[in-house]
Amino acid sequence: MEFVAISALLVIGGLTYTYVHRKRLYKQIDELEQWKISLMNRPVPEELSKIKSLNMMGETEQLFEKWRNEWDDIVAVQLPNIEEKLFDIEEAVVKYRFMKAKDALQQTEQQLKDIEGSIQRILLELQELVGSEEKNREEIEQLKEKYRQVKKAMLTQRHAFGCTEVALEERLNALQNQFQTFEQLTTEGNYLAAREVVVVIQNELHELNRFIEQIPLLLSDAQIEIPAQLDNIVEGYRELLEKGYVLDHLPVDKEVEEVRGKVSQVVALLEELKVDEAEALLRETQEDVDTLYDLLEKEVYAERFVHDETEKIEQTLYDLEEETKETRDETLFVQQSYHLSQSDLDKYRQIEKQVQQLMKRFMLIQTKMAEERLAYSLIREELEEILAQIATVKEKHAQFREHLYALRKDELAAREKLSEMKKQLSEAIRLVKKSKLPGLPESYMLQVSEARESLTRVSLTLDGKPLNMEAVHQALDEAIVFVQNVYDQTKEMIEQAQLAERVIQYGNRYRRRFQVVKEGLDEAEQLFRRYEYELALQKAIAVVEQVEEGAFERIREWLKENE
Known about the structure:
With 563 residues, the protein is an all-alpha fold. It has four domains: 1-148, no CATH class; 162-273, no CATH class; 300-406, no CATH class; 436-561, no CATH class. It is built from 16 helices and no strands. The chain has helices at 2-40, 44-51, 58-94, 98-156, 158-161, 165-187, 191-242, 252-271, 275-337, 342-370, 376-435, 442-462, 469-507, 515-529, 533-547, 551-561. Helix 4 packs across helix 7 (191-242), helix 9 (275-337) packs across helix 10 and helix 13 runs parallel beside helix 15 (533-547). The chain starts with a helix and ends with a helix. Keywords: Cell cycle, Cell division, Cell membrane, Coiled coil, Membrane, Septation, Transmembrane, Transmembrane helix. It comes from Anoxybacillus pushchinoensis.
């Protein structure tokens, strides 16, 4: 029974697959049939009929025959072949030759794609031909009007074109020939070739319009503006020479001749209607002219600068020289009281040397100016360098004088700090006396002695002649450490003594009840009488905490509240 059931299922499955597959193939056949019909109904004949309104000659006639033959082949040969193939495919499906049918469908689909591509190409080429004729007809009239405007402009502004007139007329005559070529091609039915001529005419008219606008301006610059500027430069150059300017470094005559040569090249390029090249060369030429102007103006401004600044610089140098002399005297005076390092002395000598060098350099410039051996621009550069160096030397000089002042300022600050530390040490001793301690540990007394000695060393160093502030600062730093340690140790020692005394007093309440407390407190008292306050406190805390945990913190809080 199971075998029969499985066989039945397989048969049913096979029949279902065959039915579905055949239905899919029939659907594809129908779609290709519809595609074939749509291709046959494309409006190629209607578009071909539009060409008959054109001149059926030359290129137009050839294209018409070509497209008509292609369409006839599609309609009479290719599409009927497709029809037959579709019948063959349908027959293969009926006979269950599915693979053969599927391959044939793919081939037929590709053939239909190729046919559709051919039809689209024909329609596009048709539109291009018809469109070219329409565009040509519309645009040629506009171009003729523009041509008349260009010709009129050339006639009315003939004087503005100068040496370029002949070349422009040649281009204009050539353009007239292009119009004639267009008419001939159109008459012969060569509309696509005529379209190319239209584009040529458009570009040529655009360029001629640009030439008409640019050439008069370029000729004016090349033949009038720049030559006038060059004449002004030559005249200004000679006037400066007559006034005594040294201009050997400016070969103006040579540069002017080179610029005139470039101007001639510009005119030659314009004669050949190489307008873009001429414009670029003219810009370069104008830059050369501007550079010559700038160089001459630089000399004039430099002369004013030299005239205005020379006396100021001279006075500044003399003032700086006097100030350095005063600093030298002040340095000698300071050396009697203070120790100046070799580095400090070298800094001053360097300043003095630089001032002398600047004086010599300035005097050399004055000599060259008197002998008229230097251009003002070069003198200005020299003077500007001197001004920059003067500013640098002044800054170094001011820093050195500030250093001299700082030595005295440092001494006063050191003496003030010494006084503060003496007061701090005295305050520590006062706190000890006020606390009424039974005695002081030997280590503490040793620290006090070291602090006093460090303060004495600072005093002796401050009284030294010459005063060595580096040594003062070193001694001062050491004294600060010693005194601060004594002060901190004093406060800590007094606090420990007070706490130890209070803890022992608090623990006395347990002395009779607990032998261990009695013995511990006796030991703490012995340590206290030997001035070992820290050990006494530690011992007392340990004993009391054995019988009353947290007692020490309560004692400390009570002391803080009753201070």
